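Aim 2 progress. For Metalloregulator ArsR/SmtB family transcription factor, the working sequence is reproduced below.
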Amino acid sequence: MLEPISPTSVFKCLADETRVRMTLLIAAEGELCVCELTTALEDSQPKISRHLAQLRSCGLLEDQRRGQWVYYRLHPQLPEWVQQMLKVVVQANQSWLAVNSEKLLNMRNRPERPSLCG
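Predicted structure tokens for this construct:
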């Protein structure tokens, strides 16, 4: 992130249901790849990738390639207020995300990843 993130930029970036759902799922899971998001949201890979690019460009997400997979996570330099806001929104909206979380949980051939704690 080159510039400090502002409330206006955060809310503009999240002013789309797909981007909000993606961001909250990533916040809840720690990281997700495109195939996981296409499954959870039942959307096409090009649409998911376009939204991920927007979330990256506004500084909310960062990506990391590991083998054939590209994983997305919250940008580690997000201000504390953004991290706290996302945490509260995830906790307060479990039922809103339940269908997406269930699809993710039931996904077959989900990519393996090492523990985020390791």
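The beta strands are 32-33, 61-66, 69-74. This observation will guide construct design in the next reporting period.
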